[in-house]
Design brief:
single chain; 138 residues; mainly alpha; Helicase, Ruva Protein, domain 3; 0% strand; flat
C-alpha cells in the first residue's frame, strides 16, 4: 500500500533536523497494540466475507488494467490479493461482515497506485480515478 503523508510544517521539520538520531528515538517507542491483539485483528480481517460477485469485480479490474491501454503493465494476481485483503480490512473497520464494491473502490488507489505506471505521465493521478469508473460493478 502507498499512503501519502506529505511534508511536515516548517517547525516540525526544524525539530526533526535539530533532533536526536532517529535510531535513538526508536528505543523510546512504546507499543500501542500487543502482538496478540494485532494477530487477532488480522485473523478477523480474513473472516470478512468476499462474495463471488466481488471476486468477479476484482478480476474485471485486473483485466481492465491489463487491456485498457492506460498503463504500461497491468495488475498482477498478487495485486488482486492485496486489493481484496485491504477491502476486507476496510469492511472490518466499518464493522461489516462482508466486502462491498465501495470497499474495493475506496482502497484501490492506495493499493495499486505504486503498481501502475500510466502511459500518459501528465494525467497519471487522474488515470486511477478514471480506471475505477470504467469498470462497472455487476
Amino acid at each position: 500500500m502507498k499512503i501519502k503523508i506529505g511534508y511536515p510544517d516548517a517547525e516540525a521539520e526544524k525539530n526533526l533536523l535539530l533532533g536526536q538520531d532517529r535510531r535513538q528515538l526508536l528505543q523510546q517507542l512504546q507499543a500501542v497494540i500487543s502482538v496478540d491483539k494485532l494477530m487477532a485483528i488480522q485473523a478477523a480481517t480474513q473472516d470478512i466475507h468476499v462474495s463471488s460477485a466481488i471476486i468477479d469485480y476484482v478480476q474485471q479490474l485486473l483485466a481492465h488494467s491489463r487491456h485498457s491501454g492506460l498503463f504500461h503493465f497491468g495488475l498482477s494476481p498478487r495485486a488482486g490479493l492485496g486489493l481484496l485483503r485491504a477491502a476486507q480490512a476496510w469492511a472490518l473497520i466499518d464493522q461489516r461482515e462482508h466486502v462491498l464494491p465501495e470497499d474495493i473502490q475506496a482502497v484501490l488507489p492506495s493499493v495499486v497506485s505504486h503498481r501502475l505506471q500510466a502511459r500518459d505521465e501528465h494525467i497519471a493521478n487522474d488515470v486511477i480515478n478514471k480506471f475505477i469508473t470504467q469498470v462497472p460493478v455487476s
